[in-house]
Amino acid sequence: MRPDTLKTRIFLDGADPQETRQVIAALGFLDGQTTNPSLLAKNPEAEAHKVDGNKFSSTAIYDFYKALCQELSALLPKGSISIEVYADADTTVADMLTHAREFDAWIPNAHIKLPTTTAGLEAAAVLTGEGRRVNMTLVFSQAQAAAVYAATRGAGRGDVFLSPFVGRLDDRGEDGMDLIKNIVALYGQSDGHVQVLSASVRTMDHFLCSLAYGADIITAPAKVLLAWAEAGKPIPGPKYGYNAKGLAPIPAEALSLNKNWREYDIRHPLTDAGLKKFADDWNSLIDMNS
C-alpha cells in the first residue's frame, strides 16, 4: 500500500502494460505512467514488428499507441497517463496542436507531452488555455522551467507537469539532481500550477534524492520501482545524503517567474539531442513507404 508519509506521486516510466501490472502488484499503488517514443519502441509488440520486418504504417502506429494508452488508462483510471506528440526540429505549432487534441480525446486522464522548445511552449499556452493538461518534457535548465511557468500561467494545479531529465545531465558530467533541487526552490514561492516531475531517473539514489528534494512526482523505470518496493518503500528525510560522485554542481539561478516566457533563453543542446532521439525512435517503427 501507499506509505502514509509519502507526499510525492509515483509514476512508472514505460510503455509495457505487463510492467504496469507488475509494479502495481509490488507497490500496492501507482499514481500514473509516462510514455515516450523511445519507450514505445521497446514495447514487446512494437519490437516484434521491427524484428519481423513488419513495421507499422503511418496510421497503424497511432492506432497501436492509442490502444496502449487506453489499456494503461484502464489500469490507472485515477492516475495520469502522459502521451507524447511527435516533434522534431521542423514540427510546427499547428501540427503539435492537431496531435495533442487528438491524443487528449483518447483517454480521460491524459497529460500531453510537449518538448520545451519555442513551438512546444506556444502549443502549451494554447492547450492550457483550452483547459487541457500538458507535460513539458526534455527540460535541462532553470530558464526552461521559468519559461514553462510563464507560458502556462493561469492553468489549474495539476494541469502542468515539468519533466527535468536527471540522468542525461549526469551523462555529461553535471549533477542532474541539482536541477531538481533548484527548480523546486524556484517554484517555492509560485502559485503551484506547475508540478515538478523528476524524470530520467535511473538509480535508487536518483529516486530517493528526488523524494528528499520534494519533487511533486517521480517517474521511474520498473526496475527502480521494484527495487524500492523490495527495500520496504523507504522515504528519506530532507537531509538525505546524495552522493554526486564527482559530478559538477549546477548552481541555483536567481530567476523571476513574472516575465513573458519569450524573454527566457530556453536553448539547450540536450533538448535538441533528445528531440532528435525521440523522433528517430518513432520513425524506426514506421514503414516510410506506407
Automatic annotation (TrEMBL):
Recorded hits in InterPro entries, A to Z, give: Aldolase_TIM (IPR013785), TAL/FSA (IPR001585)
Q: Which UniProt keywords apply?
A: Schiff base
One of this protein's GO BP terms? carbohydrate metabolic process
**Source organism superkingdom:** Bacteria
Q: Does the keyword Membrane apply?
A: no
Indicate yes or no for the key word RNA-binding. Answer: no
The record's section on Pfam families has: TAL_FSA (PF00923)
Q: What is this protein called?
A: Transaldolase family protein
